[in-house]
Design brief:
Polyprenyl_synt; 71% helix; 17 helices; metal ion binding; 2 strands
Amino acid sequence: MTEDQPALREVERYMRAVIDRAESSGMLDDRAALPLYRVLAYHLGWMDEQFRPARVDGGKRIRPLLCLRCCEAAGGDPSAAAPVGAAIELLHNFTLVHDDIQDRSRTRRHRPTVWALWGEAQAINAGDAMFALSQLALLGVADRLPASSVALLLRAFNETTLRIVEGQVLDLGFEDRPSVSVDEYLTMIRGKTAALTAFAAWSGALVAGADPERLERFRLFGEALGLGFQIRDDYLGIWGRREETGKEPADDIRRRKKSLPIVLLLESMTPPDRELLDSLWSGPEVSDQAVEQVLELLERYGVRERVRAEVARLHQEAHSLLAEAAEPGPARDALAALLDRLATRSG
């Protein structure tokens, strides 16, 4: 058992309860005729492909953990934030189900994705259901907080969802563009990735009763953490190892993904090297030889070290913001340890 599992048990219990309640109040008594909720359980790691109980990788639950840790660091009871943590995790997984369709990703966490098993149409339904369930989970704080705080949470939660979708729209639009600036890329991940980590940190502090100034510090901490998390993910998408990431090495190069390493390369390279890159990516598939040549270009322009330096900068910024937001003590230490793990993770 890791040190994070006890903190997440209540979140997991609440997620299961929300889904079970929805299934039991659904249209049909015959669960085999309406496997929607078991498809969700499969995606979350609770069932296998035959809908048998299982306990497989359902993700690290980083975002709900961040919410609970920030609640505690702001002086609150982390168990009071469990419904918010459950809502955050369900919202995150709604985006993953839809992203897998849009990205044509057939595997996630070493297993077939929902659309790969049950088709695109049913995967869209599963994602839609996950979003509705996230709203229901969030309403679980209604008996724990003042009505004004609940309304504030709901508004911020839906605004966060819009920022995530806006980021995904930008990300998909980047695929058809010859180049993307670093500023444009950062705007995209500030929505697609960092908006939810910012909400997680902010909402945990809100449940704890933090004042507006302190809430903003927690929000900025969550945003810096999210930006660093995504850029570390970009690093692993090119230089990560298969046994740690579950993906082929340099998978983002094969997908022609405009992650930060490629954006930095495009801004730095000479016209002849740009022509070379365009020729390497011109075919229907990117060959192993082409991948090696792109890796050589990345090394020649020092992109790997620049990406590492940006992760380190955001890591330090998040540490500074955390020191401003939370009082010294075990709760802040736990958040600092989480931040350090995310900055150096290998998968």
